[in-house]
## 1
Amino acid sequence: MTKTYKATGINLRGIPLGESDRILTVLTSQRGLIQLVAPGARKYKSTLRGRSELFVVNELLIAKGRSLDKIIQAETLESFSGLSINLDKLVTSQYLAEIVLCIALTDQPQTELYELFKEHIRRLNLLSPSQSVLPLLSQAVFHLLVLAGIGPQVYKCCVTEKAIIANFQDTNWQVGFSFGGGGIVNLLPDNSTSKDLEKQQNSTQNSTQNSTQNLIINNKLGAVELSLLQQLGGKSLPILSEILPLESMDLSLESAWINIEQLLRNYTQYHLGKSFRAANLVKMI
């Protein structure tokens, strides 16, 4: 007698199998990542055709198999049609799925990861076409990193453990960010200014050696970028007028979000030891 079980999951990846089948990688709440055969899913009139598309949430009845389990029934609970008709949203979703595939476990409940990923996909689906995906993408990556236990430290210097507050008074003020150190690094001695720092060291654009603490500084962030980065751990994106001074609202927020997204992408790839194919397409957004 064939053993069956039920699971609720969202499709993260699909590859062809044979003439008409498809192998799906599904993130489930109950069992984590599982690979399933969707028989006949590539046939035009198959009932599994639409249910096997990316980012569709299904309630599944699954039969145990020798090598791969097989979908017997699938009932769609939720789909995100807005993703497939917008390239920015689709690429962003695929990038997040690649991260999830790296951090998700198999044969273990992954309820928190499942709900988190689904929530961020839902937000992307509802995003207006005129709005940039970068703020939502940055927060989604940040949340996934925190859940995976590798979230960057953004409120305190990862060397001294002293709090760092963005200095909007000094237009040249910057804070360092170290991948190896795990977060932000204070570049200035206490009560110093950016002019003092220029006298003390010669800095480069993207990668410098902090001789005092022996840390590689991979990026430098201004006050606006640090303030935005520090707010990504919240449940929703920050209201900019509540965290940025009025005069800073005239600065290029788009440039700030681009820098934050690139920083988090590189930090993620550094700690997971993997580059993400869809991330290269995000660079073109």
Note: The longest strand covers residues 4-17.
## 2
Amino acid sequence: MIVGIIGLGLIGGSMAIDLKRRGYADKILGVESEPVNAAAALKMELADEIVSLRDCVERSDLVVIAIPVGSAVKMLPEILDIISEEGNGRKIVIDTCSTKSQIVRVVHYHPMRGRFVATHPMAGTEYSGPWAAMPNLFDGRACIFANSEESDPQALKTVEDLYNVLNMRPIYMNADNHDVHTAYVSHISHVTSFALALTVLDKEQDEKHIFDLASGGFSSTVRLAKSSSDMWVPILTQNRDNVLRVIDTYLEKMNEFRDAIAGYDEERIEKLIAEANRIKKIIR
């Protein structure tokens, strides 16, 4: 199996490590537009070769698109066009993007649509680039398969095997439903972390010791604010409507806390916290 990975950052690089180490891929071909990242990926042995996009598609059995979703949406039709030109109906393409509606929509009528499997491995950290790649990143996590009925059965089975090698559990979901759910469990977390970081940075201009007092709670809450804008700008714009609805709900809850605190309403504050504590039954 020759696997081509477009984007050897946190997700693509981590996938490359485990697919090679666990015997799924005999060879990894990498595509990296940034020269520094390309050199680092080769030095770190994330890829056996760095090649052009066309060379990667033509030589690979399976192509992984692991770049920001804005670029992925533009690139996917081009990749399927190359496969169509070759007349090789056995090649497979997957993406790893965290929004799915637009990427499945853009190739819905493409003659090679069946060779594309839309996936979202639910794993990651706040870091980016080849240096962020790590083994075992995906172990025990969920992988979303979006609109899998539109993919050829053989292509779907091959990709299921790939994620099985990465020790991920599959969840099958409609692309639109996926984007609603990720807005609640992932995208809003990043928005609130960015907002909190901006709030504290504004205060730090006046009080130089505020970060000296930061505890583990603050660090864990604001951790996601370190995430790359290159990744998150297209995610938030593509999932705009869902994210806005979640932000509106979040602001309602924040105002409930504000009103209770402003009114010295200890009973209401306690009730809000107790309601929030129910999350312990879901997330341990």
Note: The chain has a mean pLDDT of 93.
## 3
Amino acid sequence: MVLISIMNQLDQMDKKIVDALAVDAHMSSMEMSKQLKICAPTIRRRVNRLIKNEIIRIQAVQINRVKTSITVSILLKVESNVIVRTADLLASQKEAGFIVLTAGYFNIVCLCWFESVEAYSRFLNSVLYPMEGVLDTDTLICTEYRKYAFVKMNRAADPTKRANKPVDDIDMKIIELLEKDARQKSTRLAKSLNISAPTIRCRINDLLDNNIIRIQAFPNFRMSKTIAAVIALKVANGSVNRIADYLSDRTEARQVMLFTGSYDIGVWAWFETIQAFSDFLKDVINPLEGVEKKEIAIQTEIKKWVHQW
């Protein structure tokens, strides 16, 4: 379920459509019609209205970036007078895809994607280490996505293994355009990339079939009052899979990743109210057996998000 307060302004039919689009917006109106028992013309009309009113945007999301890049989460505690400046500096880096300000020990959380270990090393030496006002940092390398953008990953497949057909530069260009607007026609993409439309369609289908991308609907954060939290957990040996799977089953969790570093599991979760967040901590996080250390911070502002409006 898409946990955003603006959903309260929509009727039940709208909510069903948005929930379906949040999982897979690539399905046709006819396919959605069979799934929701709503006639296809009504679905098309309502989807167009939701998009026109800027309630949702349909974009591509790389649901398993382990296959295409190195994912690194950077937690920073910086002096209060340089928080905005530091966040803006990070936001200007092309490698940074997700940056939020938080209320907690760490006041900035940044998720970056790097093409290689060398690119990651250059980022550390040229961007992170020279920063002024940084009091403490923790860098965590993602080893596996368990859930991303509300999509649970298939553990049966090796998450570090690339698809049979490796992702090349053309694929990445297509992904970048679809991340901005996945409703673009193949003919428009073909014109932008100077590639034939049939080739574009074939490559998009390959990316979808190999679980590299998923086409989904994303809510407009400017219109919502969602409470979001970043949760990092250090757990005992043997408890990682159990806890990660349990958290991935929670509807509140938007993404769940496994890390190497000071923490083993990272969670980004959405809540409709502060009470719902409090209940999640009390009923879900605190009773977890095997948790040795946890860091919990409420998100106060999104400075950059790959799916930001």
Note: The radius of gyration is 20 Å.
## 4
Amino acid sequence: MSHASISSSFVTAFGKLSANSDDYVPDIVRLILSEARKGRASDVHLVPSESALMMQWRVDGVLHAVAGFDRELATRIIARLKVISGLLTYRTDVPQEGRVAREYSPTEVRVTTFPTLHGEKAAIRMFAENDQLQRLGQLGLPDTVRSRLLEHLGATAGVILLTGPSGSGKTTTVYACLREIIAQSGGSRCIMTLEDPIEVAVDGATQSQVRPSAGFDLATGLRSLMRQDPDVILVGEIRDPQTAEAAFQAALTGHLVLTTFHAGSAAEALTRLLDMQIEPYLLRSGLRSVICQRLLRRRCEHCGSPPRTEPGLNEKCEKVAEGSDKFRLAETPGSTCGHCGSTGYSGRMVLAEMLDPDLPEIARGILQRTDARQLATLAESAGMETLQQAAGKAIAAGLTSHEEVLRVLGSLK
């Protein structure tokens, strides 16, 4: 479905629903899920205001105003989402998190609610179809990064660290790595995961979800998991020094550990781990590779429109549901291209940099606790292509724009 037809498609389908039907609200929720999936939305935001429930879709990493519902429908729509996700409808004062039952969605959908001044906000995370982004070859990683990563996945020990900010595709990449290992090993390696939460079920892996309220957190679970005789361990995310130390100890005792970590660059990931009191010798001995990635929107191939952003998103959302209508379409400015809605972008591409801690210069830098800027300079001198360099090439090739790079990376320096 084209970007230009997202809103019109939704309002057309919405107009066919009967407000007098007993299933009116369930049908609205079903329509939101199905149309968001067709529109390639990764997230749906249902945001309450004083007079409306505003709906926004995140497409290719950017929020777009889609529609607004009046207050009469707001609480009923949120309540229905909570019902199909197994959440408590009578608790509106605390955050909740759940999964949409399979009978309501054939693909993985996660729902979180959060209390606000004007009622509960709901965020719906739409995960990729089961046949999408399964293997590393489908992700669009740079050839050098992909080939070296495939080599590392065959190792018997060490930590492979996937880094980047939220929304940079780390989880998608780490699950693709898991599937590569399963395919390569043919079932000969014991693969176990510890996640918070489990985002995608992967055949061939034994997956577990932590429960901090029961004392089963990432660090405690990881130490217990090691007694289950695993060959490969996936730790959903390193969030604290205890989890970081347990992950590196697991690597030193003969396990391949895959994990994600929030950091702005591969070099910054190293210094952040050192700041978490991970001993330099432990980091140097246990780390196999660090990959940092970002997602950039691709320039639309079907139109000559310059990339543009949609101004006044919040103001537009506030006005969408004003008046007597229970629903109104969010208008898009001057949409003429049926593929991108004249935003100038369609789809996304991945940028990635890979730092090799075994390089002598990097190894010395780690042991000497060198700062991130100097580590990055050393890695670049040793041949690492940085995110900024990859972005510059993408701009030169016409794949994306300077404005998009500034939005994601902040600069090209």
Note: Residues 309-325, 327-335 have pLDDT under 50 and may be disordered.
